[in-house]
Amino acid sequence: MEVLQATDAAIKRAAAIIRMGGVVIYPTETVYGLGCHPADIDAAKRVCTIKGRADKPLPLACADKEAARRIVRFNSAAEKLADRFWPGPLMLVLPAAIEYSIWVTHGASTLGVRVPDHPVALRLAELSGGVIVSTSANKSGAPPPATAQEAADQIGGEVDLILDGGPAPLTRPSTVLDLSGDHAWILRQGPITAEQIREALSI
């Protein structure tokens, strides 16, 4: 296991590892993420194995809204919320516009996407092709890590590189909002509240 301070050179190295099919741990504004290239079947399977979970779709972090547009189909509600809360701790579940492996989707026809509000995560996604897996860097059922050390303690021996960007500012996972159907459903409460979402959609 190698731990590097998240300098630009280290981020470039991590991105190269991802592009070559590796798995890295990196900081976001919410918690530390476990990442790989979503189109790499073996890497996505490895992420599921590391977490000890293979029953839920893997969330994705995008470098910007345009990168998200390439992999999901936006509706009017998604447009409003992305404009209001991205970059930020709101994950939108939308119909997939691209086909990833079962290890990413686990049979779902939707993908969960967000643009993180953290310079390391954004740069890593940008250098890795625009989109990376962004599931929390912990074993399934264990607390999501807010520091590189916490992530290392749980799964550090099973990844190729850890980027240490200091403590995650929010220390809790993002809000997850399902916009794939006729109604909006909050699947996980997080930093963005239901009231904030309602307010943004009413504009």
Report what the structure shows.
This protein is of the alpha/beta class. The chain has one domain: DHBP synthase (Alpha-Beta Complex). Helix content is 33%, strand content 21%. It has helices spanning 8-19, 41-51, 65-69, 76-85, 102-105, 119-127, 148-155, 194-202, and strands spanning 3-5, 24-27, 32-35, 60-62, 90-95, 110-114, 131-133, 135-136, 161-164, 175-178, 185-188. The strands form 2 sheets. The chain has a 6-stranded mixed β-sheet with strand order 7-4-6-5-10-11. Strand 2 (24-27) and strand 3 (32-35) form a beta hairpin. Helix 1 packs across helix 6 (119-127). The mean pLDDT is 97.
Summarize this, please?
The chain contains 8 helices and 11 strands.
List the SSEs and their pairings.
Layout: E1 3-5, H1 8-19, E2 24-27, E3 32-35, H2 41-51, E4 60-62, H3 65-69, H4 76-85, E5 90-95, H5 102-105, E6 110-114, H6 119-127, E7 131-133, E8 135-136, H7 148-155, E9 161-164, E10 175-178, E11 185-188, H8 194-202
Parallel strand pairs: 1-9, 2-9, 4-6, 5-10
Antiparallel strand pairs: 2-3, 3-8, 4-7, 5-6, 10-11
Helix pairs in contact: 1-6
- Report how far apart the termini are: 48 Å
Mean pLDDT: 97
Instruction: Tell me the quaternary state.
Output: single chain
CATH architecture: Alpha-Beta Complex
Strand order of the largest sheet: 7-4-6-5-10-11
For the record, the count of structural domains works out to 1
The description of the largest β-sheet is: 6 strands, mixed
Q: Give the topology string: H per helix, E per strand.
A: EHEEHEHHEHEHEEHEEEH
The number of helices is: 8
The helix fraction, in percent, is 25-40%
Uncertain residue segments: none
Strand content: 15-25%
- Shape verdict: globular
Radius of gyration: 16 Å
Structural class: alpha/beta
